[in-house]
Design brief:
single chain; 145 residues; mainly alpha; 5 helices; 0% strand; rod-shaped
Length: 145
């Protein structure tokens, strides 16, 4: 009963395919053959088993791909969350420095002025002694928070 329904559905599916492999074509032919011989039945049953195994393998590949895609999606979401967290921490530094209003989130000074100052900071070499002074002052404020 269950096999009859599976076979009927599978044959209908295979008939709808534009291109079938040799095994699938033979399954359709034997399924539609009214007077199968004992040899035909033997082939037919073997092909049915192979087709079912092929379906299970396809489903297993799809399930594995789905798991991998889900893992990748979760990892990408975690990366975005970590990036957002770091961006918020950077904004927090601007707030601690008094450069961004905590209530509105807007710069406390002119945007062009703020950006210009940051551009100037970015051009200062790592060996410049002012950077060490800035680090000390920043570390001191961070320990108070």
């Amino acid at each position: 009963m269950k096999n009859d329904a599976w076979l009927k559905d599978r044959v209908a599916y295979l008939k709808g395919l534009k291109s079938k492999n040799e095994q699938q074509e033979l399954l359709v032919l034997l399924a539609e053959k009214t007077n199968r011989t004992a040899q035909d039945d033997k082939k037919f049953n073997a092909i049915i088993r192979a087709e079912k195994a092929s379906q299970r393998a396809t489903k297993a590949r799809q399930d594995a791909a789905k798991l991998i895609n889900e893992e990748n999606r979760v990892a990408a979401k975690a990366e975005r969350a970590a990036r957002t967290h770091e961006l918020c921490n950077s904004a927090g530094l601007l707030i601690l420095a008094g450069l961004v209003d905590t209530k509105t989130g807007k710069p406390a000074i002119d945007k062009g002025e703020l950006l210009g100052a940051l551009l100037g900071l970015a051009k200062v070499s790592a060996e410049d002694p002012r950077r060490l002074e800035w680090k000390r002052a920043g570390d001191a404020l961070l320990t108070k928070v």
